[in-house]
Amino acid sequence: MRALGLDGFSKGWVAVLLDGDLHEIRFCRDIAEALSVRFDRAAIDIPIGMTNDGERACDLLARERLRPHSSRVFTGARRRLWLEFSDPDSANRDALQRGQKRVSRQLWHLGPKIMEVDTFVQANRAHDIREAHPELVFLRLNDRKPLPAKKSEAGIRIRRLLLKRAGIRAIDKWLANERLGTGAKCDDVLDACAVAIAARDATGCFPEGVAPRDAHGLPMQIWS
What we know:
- By secondary structure, this protein is of the alpha/beta class.
- It has a single domain (about 1-70, about 115-224), classed as Nucleotidyltransferase, domain 5, CATH 3.30.420.
- About 40% of the residues lie in helices and about 15% in strands.
- It has a 7-stranded mixed β-sheet with strand order 3-2-1-4-5-7-6.
- The longest helix is centred in the last third of the chain and has 16 residues, at about 185-200.
- The model has no long low-confidence stretch (mean pLDDT about 95).
């Protein structure tokens, strides 16, 4: 099983490949480069499959599982936000007129990467590319005990430990050496490792069973 995990950062994508004892990390400028290596299954920390109103069952189920840290799952991704509007204020005015929820600033700024992945996945449907959420993976690895914030010193420390226990022995070297000069932060590398584990193990998803599909036929399901 060649499992690939991807997490976005300011200058591109962190890509972690797990293939038995072979573990590799790359820092790529775009999603096409990140997914250019051979893989059996990829998992990515970005919404795949979107509804017209931004409401997805998978987001609600993931938020429920992560309580009391449900805000770690962003909700409300809609293609039209980034296709029709140039700023979050005008997008939110339109959402309110339609009786829909506003989009957060954090989600708005993820828009270019969300649309980049959306375009790639629609054009490459033969590939097994799944949505995953690193916080759900870390929660599973931590026996479902809530974790400190991922950017805190304690949060980084426990996530590193959990990844080592899951077999990613190179994490300290990746954080101390390979990451430097790329623009990627510690939590970007940790999150890419976590979703690589989701791709490798594919142990659970929200919702379970057959994934609901959006209007473009893309699955709306978060793996953990």
